[in-house]
Amino acid sequence: MFRNLLDRLFTDDPSPRPLATDDAEVAVAALLVRVARADDHYHQTEKRRIDEVLAELHGLGLADAAERRLVAEMIEAEAPDTVRFTRLIKDRVSLEDRAAIIGAMWEISLADNHRSANEETAIRLVSALLGVTDRDSALQRRRVAGR
Fold it and tell me: Where is the Co-chaperone DjlA N-terminal domain (predicted)?
């Protein structure tokens, strides 16, 4: 399953095809893991928050969300760059939903109550690659911080 999913995510096939729901969810989860790992401190708090965010975003139970996170951790470790994830998502996800993904990334970044420059840089990169403006990213950050 893991290798097949990697092959589907990282194919250079130019014809856009809809991803299976599970594949799209794992691609988003891999970006969340990438942001959490950006500061070289991947804490249990961040893992738990990723599980909660995935459960909330996709209507999953925490056990299913944790399974998705574990797969996403393996995929993220194998992925050579962030561009492949964002290109895949940008081609298949609405702008409104891409902004929500940025909000989820801020959820993970702020989960440990510490603002990391490396995590913020990763979010800025993903925002730009997903076509989400700095303003919309800042609005998502403020929304998350206000909780």
Answer: 26-140
- pLDDT of 62: 95
pLDDT in tens, 15-25: 444 444 556 67
Total domains in the fold of the chain? 1
Written as six digits, the tokens of 91 are 């081609």
In whole angstroms, what is the distance from residue 94 CA to residue 146 CA? 25
Q: How far apart are CA 76 and CA 79, in angstroms?
A: 5
For 10, 27, 34, 81, the CA distances from 39, given in Å and listed in that order, are: 25, 20, 10, 16
Residue where the block lists tokens 């990334």: 105
Give residue for tokens 């206000």: 146
Confidence of residue 89 (pLDDT cuts 50, 70, 90): confident
- Provide the CATH number for the domain around residue 115: 1.10.3680.10
Answer whether residue 142 shows pLDDT above 60.
yes
> Which residues touch 6 (CB under 8 Å, ≥6 apart)?
75, 78
The answer as to whether 15 is a domain residue is: no
- Rounded percentage of the chain residues whose pLDDT exceeds 70: 84
